[in-house]
Amino acid sequence: MRLYTYVGSGNGYKVELLFALLGRQYERVEVSIFDGESRTPEFLKKNPAGRVPLLELDDGTYLPESNAILWHLARGTRFMPSSTAAQDRALAWLTFEQSEIEPVIGSARFWIQTGRSRARGDETQRRLAWGKQSLAALDGVLADRAFLLGADPSVADIAMYGYTHLAPEIDLALPPNVAAWCARIQALPGFVPGKVVYDPKAMLPDANQRVAEHARYNTQMDNKYGYSTTIDIPHEVAEHEPWFNQTLTQVNDSLVRLGILGGEYHWHKHDNEDECFIVLDGELMLDIEGKGTVTLGPKLGYTVPKGVVHRTRANVKTTVLMIEAATVTPTGD
Length: 333
Ligand SMILES: N[C@@H](CCC(=O)N[C@@H](CS)C(=O)NCC(=O)O)C(=O)O
What we know:
- The chain has helices at 10-22, 41-46, 66-74, 84-113, 123-141, 155-164, 176-186, 207-216, 233-239; strands at 2-5, 27-30, 54-56, 62-64, 218-220, 244-251, 254-264, 275-281, 284-288, 292-296, 301-304, 310-325.
- By secondary structure, it is α+β, with helices and mostly antiparallel strands.
- It has three domains: 2-74, Glutaredoxin (3-Layer(aba) Sandwich), CATH 3.40.30.10; 84-186, Glutathione S-transferase Yfyf (Class Pi), Chain A, domain 2; 217-325, Jelly Rolls, CATH 2.60.120.
- Strands 5, 6, 7, 8, 9, 10, 11 and 12 form an eight-stranded mixed β-sheet that branches.
- Helix 9 (233-239) links the parallel strand 5 and strand 6 (244-251).
- Helix 4 (84-113) packs antiparallel against helix 5 and helix 4 (84-113) runs parallel beside helix 6.
- The longest helix has 30 residues, at 84-113.
- Residues 6, 9, 11, 33, 38-39, 50-53, 65-67, 98 line the site of glutathione (GSH).
């Protein structure tokens, strides 16, 4: 069998992972999608959708769609559930993956890591918030089982693992049951880690700068204190240096975040959400496009309306509370 794939593709990695777990050999053909190799007339004859992964079977026919390929490879192996009811549930997970994980975590990761998120406006943030919901749903299911269909791993786990395990790369923390499930998959005999990385040709010109910025910002989006616990801001301030952003708690549809700021954040706006800043300590400068700079000392606050382009600056370590809709993802894209 021959697999046409691309190194940066989580869809391709899913297939390579199952090949490895099954100990099966295949010929790997790298398709340089950012050189247009998936859109040549020759490749389109193989897969009219112009996409990888694509499996060429030994009879010379082609099978597209990563999850269909997984299904094909899993047939007759321990990764295919035995009862038809369990197969139906596996198929439900394969479909869930293609609607709630791949176009969500996969797309947001692609935009962020290749410098495309700014051009996407609020869409990246929407996908990140959506990804968080998908991970929470997965976490709930995994509360009482080792793998998605029960005690044993199946094709459903391999499909779901492909992009789920990459979520922390875009600051989507894995909830505890999801993290434990990932560790169980990584412990399977024959497991191979994914080298899912974009090649330089995938990068837009400002991508390196954007990726570096992203790495510089330590953004913790887990709801650290939740309900009915004492929120310990002095502890957070003592433990962290700028630049740091931690979600403290959720209040109905809004989040309260702690920012420990220093230096300059990039200009950005939130198309649909207002953002309130209240300074606890230090001095915050809010540059507001068309309005100049608002300087805030301790106990002073300011709400930036939705759609207004702004950036924050601080010359000294400055501690700020931010109150904003839960749909905002604080990566400032
Ligand atoms: N639903 C498809 C999605 C495949 C897909 O989006 N492939 C991307 C790489 S991850 C691709 O081939 N892009 C190249 C192109 O569109 O030309 C699957 O699961 O296989």
